[in-house]
Structure formats: structure tokens, C-alpha cells
């Protein structure tokens, strides 16, 4: 697979936190506890950096 193709498909969604390894550490509930109201902004920022 070409490198730019894998980069285009790389993103983080809230549902991803219900998958391993995140689920073993508390999943989406724990992420909300840690990041609170900043979660959406953090995910958006991460996705912007990952897509660059």
C-alpha cells in the first residue's frame, strides 16, 4: 500500500476508544473522565495532525 494512501485513511473517532487497548483502560468513559469537554477539540486536532 502506498504511504500516502495509509495516511489518508488514518483518523481517530470516539468509537475507537471502545476497542483494545483502550477498552482495557476504561474505554470512552475513561477518555471523557480525563479530557472532559475538550475531547472533541483534541480528537479534531489529532486528526488534523495525522492527516498532514
From TrEMBL:
EcoEI R protein C-terminal domain ranges (all copies): 8-50
Pfam families according to UniProt: EcoEI_R_C
InterPro entries, per database record: EcoEI_R_C_dom (IPR013670)
Gene Ontology biological-process annotations: DNA modification
GO MF annotation: an example: DNA binding
Full protein name: EcoEI R protein C-terminal domain-containing protein
Gene source species: Nitrospira moscoviensis
Amino acid at each position: 500500500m502506498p504511504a500516502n494512501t495509509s495516511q489518508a485513511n488514518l483518523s481517530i473517532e470516539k468509537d475507537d476508544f471502545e476497542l483494545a487497548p483502550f477498552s482495557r483502560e476504561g474505554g470512552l468513559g475513561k477518555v471523557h473522565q480525563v479530557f472532559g469537554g475538550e475531547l472533541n477539540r483534541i480528537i479534531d486536532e489529532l486528526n488534523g495532525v495525522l492527516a498532514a
